């Protein structure tokens, strides 16, 4: 690929990922707010991660106007210092962006799998390690030159006193980049395989399993991008054409961070994926219990629909139980034909203290009727 093609590639990838990440994350946050009426810690982390990722993508897009993707000899001399400043900013921010995306993924795993203690434990350790790793790594990159301006002002490095204008050697810089890259790759692998056994055991149709596999396939692409960046880091050690070779490395970083953000938000957008695993299991058991009750009491109500949402518990998703919809006139006719029935539906005031709800709903408020269920069995 030529220099012009490399510049277009960086701009295209940065712009596409910025639009896609912003759209998906905003839809995810909107759905979370509509579903549970509140945000959890992972939602706030996604907001922070989205702002950082979009800022990083804007930095990459701007980078192309100051020589990124061009060969060294084609970069205007007036842009050389600006290029080094933006390169320095990208080096220092890459670790922060990658870490916050991974922390948001770990927090999402803790919320989606609240009953899986091994997932919660591993996720907590990952968050702690990522925080320590990011802080220490950023400090090493920020202060790799003394003073900091010596990174882009190379005249500072030839002063007679080494401490007044010294930067890390090429070997030390390479070691830091490889160390950080390997750890980030290991974190990617752990986050990718951590939920697979639990998700695969869910009672889902085959098409939903395929969608889950495709989702984890995106995670593999992100890991592959990290591996490609390793190769580029090794190659950069022995090249002087930094403006050109930095472009594919930046593309890999963009893909890795953006896909991580998408992987954490796409499951919430898909209606078949549970807001939490306990919600799905509880929903399935309660729906079966409601179906058994309706089958054993064919004359007690006209059942139109099962599985309507009720009883929202903050933080643990939507708890779905069956809601029985009745037609008052049909029901009154059936009751008049069965005087021995122990259940009664009485129109009028719905707030009476002598009523209780079928199937333990409490309150008995169903569409303008009052249910007297003194002997209604409970499950």
TrEMBL record:
NAD keyword on record: no
Keywords: Membrane, Transmembrane, Transmembrane helix
Bilayer disposition of the protein: Multi-pass membrane protein
One CC-aspect GO term: membrane
Residue ranges of the TM segments: 12-30, 42-66, 86-113, 125-143, 178-200, 212-236, 242-263
Family of the protein in this entry: Belongs to the SAT4 family.
Protein name: Rhodopsin domain-containing protein
